[in-house]
Amino acid sequence: MKLRHCGAVCTIGIVMLSVNASAADTDADGILDVEDNCILVPNGPLDPDAGGNIQLDVDGDGFGNICDADLNGDLQTDLSDFSLFIIALRRTQDPVADFDGDGTVDLTDFSLFRVMFGSPPGPSGHVSTGVWQPAPGTSWQWQLSGTIDTSHDVAMYDIDLFDVPQATIDELHAAGRVVICYFSAGSWEDWRPDADSFPAAVLGSSNGWPGERWLDIRAIDQLGPVMEQRLDFAVSKGCDGVEPDNIDGYTNNTGFPLSANDQLLYNRWLADQAHARGLSIGLKNDLDQVEELLPWFDWVLNEECFQFDECELLLPFVQAGKAVFGVEYQGNPADYCPQANALNYDWLVKDLDLGPSYQSCRDYL
User: Fold this and answer.
1) Pairing mode of beta strands 212-215, 203-206
2) Which CATH number fits domain 140-363: 3.90.180.10, 1.10.10.10, 3.30.160.670, 3.20.20.70?
């Protein structure tokens, strides 16, 4: 059964969303994101600091001082930058290390350095991350079980990081497809080849799936090395990006007292680690934190927002020009596909096993 085309209503909605995307000002400092050299921290004409840090970028790398503690220019804030900062702190005057732009390198700048430590500079509207960031209207296929059917003419395939052989990834790349690799970043799975790498202390309650347990995402010092190895593995297989699953544990009964802030810190850490490796990264579900996480993630993937009547929470991604991918496992496509198309979401009709079947709402007229 073909669905009714939404016609001019869809067109008007998409145009309005595009206008909103170009007018985005995430930090509300009066500088549009596309022109802001520090998108997440106010450093424009509305910034009240006495130093007048109005788009200050002393080293001219495209990242504003207020979000750039990468003093040696290697796109990561690490111990090498800390050593350089300590030297600047002793001298008290070094415009590159004067993050708040008040003319002095002091303890305020040290506090800012601590916040930025371990992360790349930015994000900035002046500097591209160099990773795949799909726009609304990007075609895709999601298959996590069975032999991958590589015949679909879509822009992106989302497949399992561990189960899919290298030859399949190479075949998809040869056909011009972007390859996103799925792994769970919030749960332990007893069948994965690196299952023994997880410390027992980070394993929590069952998440309802056989052989899976929630992870204590607060323990990044213990959990981080495992996730970094997975990201490195994704790079070695040639994945263009990753889909980390189960990154909304704080809304579930994990066995740990996880807070919303714990989840924000972990999810941002994941995004920073992916970007540092040149990987695109999608926000999986976690609807209640969409606005806070939008600047970190390149796209979003949701399951069953029409089933639970919560799709409007995903709009900030489309408004920012970033794709909203999603699936429904239940319901009538005749009911939800016109809505998905009107919202400019890229929705699939799938079975719960996420096998090779393919049906896109974009194909319905």
Assistant:
1) antiparallel
2) 3.20.20.70
The percent helix, strand, coil of the chain (3-state, each to 5) is: 35, 15, 50
Q: Helix, strand or coil for residue 361? A: helix
Q: Is the pLDDT of residue 174 over 60?
A: yes
Strands 187-189 and 203-206: unpaired
Rounded to two decimals, what is the model's pTM? 0.73
pLDDT in tens, 175-196: 999 999 999 999 999 999 999 9
CATH 1.10.1330.10 fits 32-127, yes or no: yes
Sheet arrangement for strand 241-245: 140-142, 156-160, 178-184, 241-245, 280-284, 299-303, 324-328, 346-349
In angstroms and rounded to an integer, the radius of gyration of the C-alpha atoms of the chain is: 22
Report the 10 Å Cβ neighbour count for 9.
Answer: 12
CA distance 170 to 179: 9
